[in-house]
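Handout, tutorial session.
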Amino acid sequence: MAHGISHARQIEFWIARISDLPALPDVVHQTIKVVNNPNSSIRQISETLSQDPSLSTRVLRLANSSYYAIPGGAASIERAVTALGIDTVSQMVFTAAVFSQFDLQSKEPFDVRSFWKHSLGVAVASETIASEIGFRDTAMIYLAGLVHDIGKIAHFQIAKDEWLTVCEHAKRNNLTALESEKELGIVTHDHLGYELVRQWNLPLLIQEVVRSHHDPGIFSGATQINVNPQAVGIVYLANLLTHSLKFGSSGHVTVRNPSKEIVKRILGNEAALLHVARSTRTALQRTIPLFESMFDSPSSASA
């Protein structure tokens, strides 16, 4: 898209183009409702997933990866839920559905496989940090981490050449993708991602994480967060840790470190960062078989 037009016109253009992207399957929204209902049963989530055989097949493939190591394997969704729990299976449903919405073919300098590795890494890192600090909704924070950069892949899907220009500019000038977007006068991926997850009607917590995961205003009170500023902070830190640990790449290689003040606000004290970084590194290493099973599936290979 031409860079000379106003920001407002760019937003109008992108909202129109984003509305052309495919919606998430209904079963994803139904699964989120089941997970958010404390009275949900294994039978309910099994019946929900049975409405989408293709998605169920992908979920079972993930469930049978060495990452989960279910004794005897899982031949049915009910067996997977029994062995792993509703929260974990809901994460698999969401992950498989999101991956299936986009073209998986890379084009230099943007490696789609590496992008999804980073996204999955931030999901796992977010869940790890949430567990470390006692954040209750670890399942939802995983989902938020998974789609925190969804605006990048949406940009790539809609306007490949422009997104590749963003990546090339970032690489040449030692910038992050966000810094590159701003220098080029292009609508930023956090804004695009927010419009997409809002269109997908995902929970407000996820919408706010996608919109604000780069925004330092969340820590000073300058940005209004209506649902959970702690969730935004967790994904913010998880994103930086995943970059620093070089687990995948999301369109740039430049790493920025959080300020000491931000670390203290999220973790309580600076000293906790080393422990959290070690826990995150371990969790990311364990995630590799899960990531590989996602990209080795027949649906991925044919994309």
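The second record follows below. Compare its token runs with those of the first.
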Amino acid sequence: MIIARLFNYFVVFSVVGWLYECTYCTFKRGAWENRGFLFGPVCPIYGSGVVLSMVVFHILPKSATGEHPLWQIFLICAAGSMVLEYVTSYVLEKLFHAVWWDYSTVPLNINGRVCLPATCGFGLAGVLVVRVIMPFVEALPEENYPLLNELFALIFMFIMGIDMALTVASLTKIVSQLERAEASFNEKADAGYQKVRVAPAAFASAASDAITTAGSSAKDAILSAGSNARDAMSSAGESMNERLNRVTESLSWRDRYHLHTMKGYRPVKRVGVNTDAIREFYVKLQEKIQVKK
């Protein structure tokens, strides 16, 4: 019964967190922005934070006044939110090579995963949860409806389980497409490099022949060598556009939804591999699905 009640709290406050995120980001951007990792209107990191706060402050002893000091609530919630946010961001990036929030442009950030202003904000939100929301929730007569509590918990669990499965399937497909594109770019880049590397020698040879050869054939030889060099240097760009179109057409509405919610793609760093091409491809892919929508 306690687990069912906590899970229901988790779902409710995940929805509240989603409403806050969408409202804040929509006002900040000036256009509607749907936030969240899952399909449903939930941000599980908010629900997790609230439930953990409930558990922690039930365990911690209260002061002589019968309440936890404000400074204690603030520090614990701020530190807890920082750990939760950093670990969640790290795990999601390792699993899907993507990030759903990025504090890189915010002062006093750590690897773009957490920052001091957001951490302080979550600390203040923790004070509100512990001092206002928790007493209100604990006063609800939930013990009178244990079966209803468990029924709602089972329904929410079933819905979120399906949501999680669909989300993982879509993200796995997106990551697979991006990894194949990256491998293709690396192969094209290597082949293009080899062509460009030998192009100057071919161009010089054609110019040398032109000195000793009369007529238009010399001019044609030089132009042909220059054209081959230009073609070699532009082939990588053409292949990116072709693959961009193929990947876009292969994405379902679910895949496009999740691609839209991503705030950045961070490919695995490998020695001797330039990741600029795949980063550019990711940005163009996001722009393309916006246009198609």
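Points raised in discussion: The CA atoms of residues 97 and 266 lie 5 Å apart.
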